[in-house]
Amino acid sequence: MFEAKEIVPLNNDWITVVFFTILVLLVVLKVLYKERLFHISTLFLSKKYLLIYFNKEKAKSTQVFYILLFLVRLLVVSLILFLASNYISVLKASLTLKSFTSIFVVLTVYFGLRYVIGLFLAFIFDLKNEHAKILYDKVSYFNTLILWVLPLLLISAYSYNHREILLKVTFAFFIFLLIVRYTLILINNKNLIFNHLFYFILYLCALEIAPLIIILKLSI
Length: 220
Prior knowledge:
Blueprint: H1 12-32, H2 34-41, H3 48-53, H4 60-85, H5 97-124, H6 128-158, H7 163-188, H8 190-195, H9 197-219
């Protein structure tokens, strides 16, 4: 999966600051939303979170919960891409805090584009409620995925003797959970999707493909 030639040593000083920030955010979440955080961390095993909290999303306290988890998500995914690039020869020359920041900014723009395009499509097709349900499931499962991947990512970042194989395992686990996420979303919303098949085909192309192409074009 990765080329492990001439691996560039990582500067763990700022990486430690990033991990510390992630852990601080999670501690705040645990203090303020202990029960909710537990339910979302077990979402792959039980749909209880989806059933309990969907109708509570308009509360201001809930918005804080998702903002904090969004920051955790951005930091974790940015670290995954950054550490993976340490084993890809075409990117290994730019493994610095600056390159991590660039990845973070690109991801922020990417998620922002996806959100705006999703709202636009939901408005055009008059499917605001359906869009809200799909978006809720997608975000919830992705947050669960991040919480599951984080321990492996932490081990990978600070392992020196087996960093390559641990990173491969982390990346493979990340991809596996993404597949599980999409599968569960399809299963949970199969009736909704089949009833609006054209919309969801367009939704998939616009939100999963188009923003990525735009970001890649801007990055090259």
